[in-house]
Amino acid sequence: MEAETSRVVADVRKQAKLPGFRPGKVPDSLLRRHFSGEIRQRVLESLIPKHLQKRFEEENLNVVGTPDISDVHFHDGEPLRFKADFEVIPEFELGNYQDLEVVYNEPVVTDEDIDKRIEELREQKAEFVNVDPRPLADGDFAVLSLESIAGVEGEPIRNEEMTVQLGDRETFAAFTENLRGLSPGEETEFEVEYPEDYGEPRLAGKTVRFHARVKGLRRKELPEVNDEFAQDLGDYRDLAELRDTLRRSIFASREYEAQREAKNRLVETLVDAHQFPVPEVLIERQIRNRIEQRLTDLAMQGVDPRGVKLDWQKVKDSQREP
Questions:
Q1: With contact defined as beta carbons under 8 Å apart, do 184 and 217 qualify?
Q2: Residue 194 in 3-state DSSP?
Q3: How far apart are CA 206 and CA 191, in angstroms?
Q4: Confidence band of 40 (pLDDT split at 50, 70, 90)
Q5: 159 in helix, strand or coil?
Q6: What's the Cα-to-Cα distance from 201 to each of 26, 159, 205, 282, 292, rounded to whole Å?
Q7: Helix or strand or coil: residue 193?
Q8: Do residues 88 and 64 touch, judged by C-beta distance below 8 A?
Q9: First to last CA, the chain
């Protein structure tokens, strides 16, 4: 203690400035009185980690996280004493980990799976064509000029060319119900209730009143499924080659998922065979990593996480058991 304190005092003397003394000439007694807080902190920061590590090595302790230091007894002429609380990696006896059996679901790809993927490709290649004006009905694509007139703070939300499909499950019911029967050129006002977890923070949890004008009516036309369709998608000779490529692609994706599920079951089997307490610090670290990943995902989607109304404590608690 005394040796470390003397070393710190000598180091402080090099930089200390006190009236009436030249740099480096301040007496130890004055330094210890004027800079007692800094000296104490630096001595503790030097000695505590050093002697803690020594004890860890002596007692073969595999420590995780940073120890919590308390009950520090630090007085001139007396030994330094303190209490350290910390967690250690648990010890356990290695059980059986070989010749384990888990269920593996061999992937299967049917013609219906390929047909479904082709329909998705058709949707991606769909074209929208204008049709003659008439009253809107479910299934129609309405082109709107939309502006919020109440319920949103700050500048109104405006969209001069917004397309919605009436009756689609992705379309809010308020749009379908209030636009149905209108013809191009007609206008209306209506309210939309947005859920708390809606992706746009300005609208999440709000009831917004909009003014809408129907600008046009469009119909979606899907391409025919033939050799020309396949050639338009890429370097395929014909439809048969496209279907073969899709079959291999779907199989590879399902095979990866099946292997991942089998590996997860294998891990669960190993965990069940080896019971031991999990250090709290490791649980907290995993939870923090998962939440940070969610925040990063939101930011990459252009969403400011600070504007998302989520109970982060609830999210944190939900991650603890897994």
A1: yes
A2: coil
A3: 10
A4: confident
A5: strand
A6: 60, 17, 9, 33, 19
A7: strand
A8: yes
A9: 46
What DSSP string runs through 281-300? Answer: HHHHHHHHHHHHHHHHHHHH
What pLDDT score was predicted for residue 104?
Answer: 92
Maximum separation of any 2 CA atoms in the chain, in Å: 97
Paired tokens of 145: 């000029």
- pLDDT value of position 10: 84
- Residue 274: HSE in the Cβ half-sphere, 13 Å Cα cutoff: 15
- Kindly report, residue by residue over 51-107, the tens digit of the pLDDT: 999 999 999 999 998 899 999 998 878 888 999 999 999 888 998 899 999 999 999
Query: If you ran DSSP here, which 8-state letter would residue 89 be given?
Result: P
Contact 12, 35 (CB under 8 A): yes
Report whether 20 contacts 39 (CB < 8 A): no
Strand partners, 187: 213
Q: How confident is the model at residue 214 (pLDDT cuts 50, 70, 90)?
A: very high
DSSP strands (E only) in the chain: 63-73, 81-88, 127-130, 141-150, 158-165, 187-193, 207-221
Is residue 43 within 8 A of residue 27, CB to CB? The reply is no
Binned at pLDDT 50, 70 and 90, residue 114 comes out as very high
Sign of CA dihedral 65, 66, 71, 74: positive
The one-letter amino acid at 39: I
Alpha-carbon distance of 5 to 10, in angstroms, equals 9
pTM above 0.70, yes or no: no
Under DSSP, is residue 169 helix (H, G, I), strand (E, B) or coil? Answer: coil
| Cα dist from 38 to 22, 76, 186, whole Å | 21, 15, 76
One-character DSSP codes across 111-131 = HHHHHHHHHHHHHHT-EEEE-
Q: How far apart are CA 247 and CA 114, in angstroms?
A: 6
In contact, 222 and 122? CB cutoff 8 Å: yes
